[in-house]
Amino acid sequence: MDKVKIDILREALPYIKRFKRKIFVIKISGKVTENLEHLHSLAEEVALLHQVGIRIVVVHGGGIQATRLSEQLGIKPRIVNGRRITDDATLDIVKMVFAGKICTEILSGLRKKGIDGVGLSGIDGNIVLARKRGLTRLLNRETGRRETIDFGNVGDVVEVNPRLLHTLLDNDYLPVISPLAADSEGNVFNVNADAIACEMAIGLGAEKLLMASDVDGVYLDIEDPSSLISRMTGKEARTLLRKKSIHGGMIAKLEESVRVVERGVGSVHIVNGTKRNALLDEVFTETGSGTMIVRE
């Protein structure tokens, strides 16, 4: 083994010891799952975390794939401000894509590395209780007008019941959760995967929530790669948000990250899941690869 590899192992060992038996929730976005090469590379990194004794729960998205299948079936997707309107036909599509295609592909990638993954949705074992989203008044960024939107079969998280997840984790299984949930009457809803991952991390008392998308992290200037923020506190994040230094979809991610660490999760990490070893760099090195948000 050459010196570089030995040095990498030396740097990783304290983190392996520190995080053994701790719970990590890893949210994988649809921008990662749509590319099988990226997905299987990330699954390999998730498998390694599991193999060194970290207890992993994966939550995945898949909006891009749902949109693609909708178009193939001649159903025009309706999306307002990045949020999908889910009528009955679209609900059937997201059931097929989320709990079927994407979940199976993630489990396949884990199986190749000898990991016992278990595919679930928020409905299984009543893991996620949801309620139907009511009529929502918002500014439609596309039309520039304020509108009242009925999102259809879209749900919001009421609570997470982690009992089944603890049972699986205690027996060395790796749960993979699709972003579907139901209310107490069994009505099924399409639920935002970020919201499920955040509430799941809180409910499980996770050490880390890792958000794997196609961005490297939080930038002060998206056009300047050197402006990547490696680490920030919740207070610093709130200051950036007030100054409107953060733009686009990163605003909601940063707001949720602050809320999660303030509710007891050790840290939230925003990493690029399309880059090989970015997840491992973030967990096992001092400098990391993305942005880490901590409470203090």
Describe the protein's architecture and organization.
The structure is a single chain. The protein is α/β, with parallel strands linked by helices. The protein has a domain at 214-227 and 234-296. The chain contains 10 helices and 18 strands. It has helices at residues 3-19, 30-33, 36-51, 63-72, 88-112, 163-170, 193-204, 234-242, 250-262, 278-284, and strands at 23-28, 55-60, 79-80, 83-84, 117-121, 128-132, 136-139, 146-149, 154-160, 174-178, 180-182, 188-191, 208-213, 218-219, 228-229, 231-233, 267-272, 291-294. Helix 3 packs across helix 5 and helix 8 packs antiparallel against helix 9 (250-262). It is globular and about 55 Å long.
Provide a concise account of the structure shown:
The chain contains ten helices and 18 strands. The chain is of the alpha/beta class. It has a domain of 77 residues.
